[in-house]
Design goal:
Strand content: 5-15%
Low-confidence stretches: 267-282
Order of helices and strands: HHEEHEEHHEEHHHHHHHHHHH
Strand order of the largest sheet: 2-1-3-4
Number of strands: 6
Distance between the termini: 22 Å
Mean pLDDT: 81
Shape: elongated
Structural class: alpha/beta
């Protein structure tokens, strides 16, 4: 046991002290918060520039419809389009030419500019002209009060969704938000399993090719050596996840000090605190977030990350011990990648039917449950399904670690030979 602890300590301390670990751990939260806060900040500021748009309307019908905005000033043209182009006036950004009744000839309106037309300008022109054309079209039917009749007949309906709690109280729910939480959790679990499982395989290959492992197995059992590496790297991953959570929380608070609106949104989203009666109404999606048990989701996330990591890390360690170089891992990694990608696709697409038979069975099968079950948990999965899934996952992880250790003890001392799956299975029976 003492040697196992020393191996775990060595793997943990060596990896958390590496520059790559420190850079990724402290840089990624800054990038994550920047992706959230920078668009919010950019949306709150404007360029300050006002662009002149000349309207050359031969019908005299459409030019009065356009009103100045913060970004565009509309001017009535008193010359032809050719005359304006000949004058080469640099203060004019674009020309809107309307040569005929647009209800009769929709192609009679053209927007000209020396540069690419901004998307917001074309959207503004389309919106103004479309509204006028709709009114003209309704007037052409010559039905009294037709526009008012149509306006009053328009009905916007959206059914409210609530879910009952165990105490009988109802709270707002939202399938799209549950899908977003599930997909985010699924992708994170998938990414972490691949990242830290790959670290295990890479570490085993490096020790084998450098022949350091020959010295280590002379004083340590291969099982302890493999288990220590898996547990040590797993603790590194857990440390990194905790640090990311703390740093992201701190950075969101700091960002909120400079952007009060952003602070209010992120505080509501992260804490899920109830809104006081005297406070202004919060956005609907923030209210819905309060109905999700983020403590439960976080707890199961840790369980499925650890279980999925132990399961696949043992497989990666066995593969790393059986090959002589990273290039030789392809034939063994392909089936593993297919299973993980299949689990990812099932997890994402089960958001439409989280209680379907495919989602149910894949959330119980240990090789796919870490990814698929994280998609289902926001949809209130039955407790017995979650407990059974976790139990099967950890039981499979322990069993697979046992068999992987049998492969590991033979493979780490096998050099210069192409290994096939049949031979690896034969190693398991060695005593």
């Amino acid at each position: 046991m003492r040697k196992l602890i020393l191996i775990i300590e060595r793997e943990y301390m060596w990896r958390i002290s590496r520059k790559s670990f420190l850079l990724l751990t402290f840089l990624l939260p800054f990038l994550f918060v920047a992706l959230m806060s920078v668009p919010f900040w950019l949306s709150s500021i404007g360029s300050g520039a006002i662009h002149n748009i000349v309207i050359i309307d031969e019908t005299g019908k459409y030019a009065p419809l356009f009103e100045d905005t913060d970004s565009y000033r509309f001017l009535y043209g008193d010359k032809s389009l050719e005359a304006y182009r000949a004058s080469d006036d640099r203060e004019i950004s674009a020309f809107l030419s309307i040569t005929a009744d647009l209800l009769q000839d929709p192609a009679a309106a053209i927007l000209y500019s020396e540069k690419q037309i901004p998307g917001d300008l074309s959207a503004l022109v389309n919106r103004v002209l479309t509204k006028q054309l709709e009114q003209d079209k309704l007037a052409s039917f010559r039905i009294p009060d037709l526009e008012q009749i149509i306006a009053e007949s328009r009905v916007s309906f959206k059914v409210q969704t609530f879910k009952w709690g165990k105490d009988g109280n109802a709270s707002s729910s939202s399938t799209p938000i549950a899908q977003m939480i599930g997909i985010f959790s699924t992708l994170i679990v998938y990414m972490f399993i691949m990242m830290y499982g790959g670290m295990v395989m890479q570490g085993v290959i490096e020790e084998k090719t450098s022949r350091i492992v020959e010295i280590m197995v002379s004083s340590v059992r291969p099982f302890d050596l493999m288990t220590g590496k898996i547990v040590g790297i797993g603790l590194v991953g857990l440390t990194q996840i905790i640090l990311w959570g703390i740093l992201v929380g701190v950075l969101l608070v700091v960002a909120g000090l400079f952007m009060p609106g952003f602070q209010a949104d992120t505080a509501m989203m992260s804490t899920g605190s109830m809104i006081a009666a005297s406070d202004p109404p919060a956005p609907e999606w923030l209210v819905v977030l309060q109905s999700f048990n983020f403590m439960e989701i976080t707890g199961y996330f840790i369980f499925y990350f650890l279980g999925g990591y132990l399961l696949y890390a043992s497989v990666f360690a066995a593969i790393g011990s059986a090959v002589n170089s990273p290039e030789d891992t392809q034939q063994f990694m392909t089936p593993i990648m297919i299973i993980l990608i299949f689990a990812l696709y099932v997890g994402i697409y089960s958001s439409e039917n989280p209680d379907g038979s495919v989602a149910f069975w894949c959330s119980l099968i240990p090789f796919t449950s870490p990814v698929v079950m994280m998609m289902r948990i926001p949809f209130e999965v039955a407790l017995w399904q979650k407990l059974l899934s976790v139990a099967l996952l950890f039981a499979a992880a322990v069993g697979l670690t046992y068999f992987a250790a049998k492969i590991y003890r033979v493979g780490i001392l096998m050099y210069g030979k192409k290994i096939h799956l049949k031979e690896i299975l034969r190693w398991i029976t060695f005593r």
